[in-house]
């Protein structure tokens, strides 16, 4: 054997078109046979089977069909629970702020009342002492 001879098996990349051609011919022969030799009926059956296979394949792909509905429902549930959690946290913070404001406001009002009483007491004492200067005590 010389180095220029080609083996009978040939190059593997040249066999692929042959296998695809034989498979396509077998597929066409099957549909032609099941249609009873009517090419129009064979074409319709082939289109129908191809559409059914395509729909089944689309349902099997990730993110399609029932799986897409389930994942969307899960995402909405997760987002809903996060929103609920955020709202609860916000309400808690508002309630804490109101309590702190009421406590601080009450303390401020107590201080104002105390200062007001002190000013009134001092004013009454000053009035008594000034009144003593001008009183007609004999």
In short:
With 138 residues, the chain is mainly α. The chain has helices at residues 12-34, 39-60, 65-134.
Features:
138 residues, 83% helix, rod-shaped, membrane, mainly alpha
Dominant shape: rod-shaped
Poorly predicted tracts of residues? none
Helical proportion, percent range: over 70%
How many individual helices?
3
- Based on helices, strands and strand pairing, what is the structural class? mainly alpha
CA radius of gyration is: 48 Å
SSE order: HHH
Strand content: under 5%
Distance between the termini: 157 Å
- Count of DSSP E strands? 0
Q: Give the biggest sheet.
A: none
Mean pLDDT: 78
Tell me what the structure shows.
The protein has 138 residues and is mainly α. It has three helices and no strands. The chain starts with 11 loop residues before the first helix and ends with a helix. Keywords: Membrane, Transmembrane, Transmembrane helix. Residues 60-83 are annotated as: Disordered. This is Calcofluor white hypersensitive protein.
SSE layout and pairing:
Blueprint (H helix, E strand, L loop, with lengths): L11 H23 L4 H22 L4 H70 L4
Helix pairs in contact: 1-2
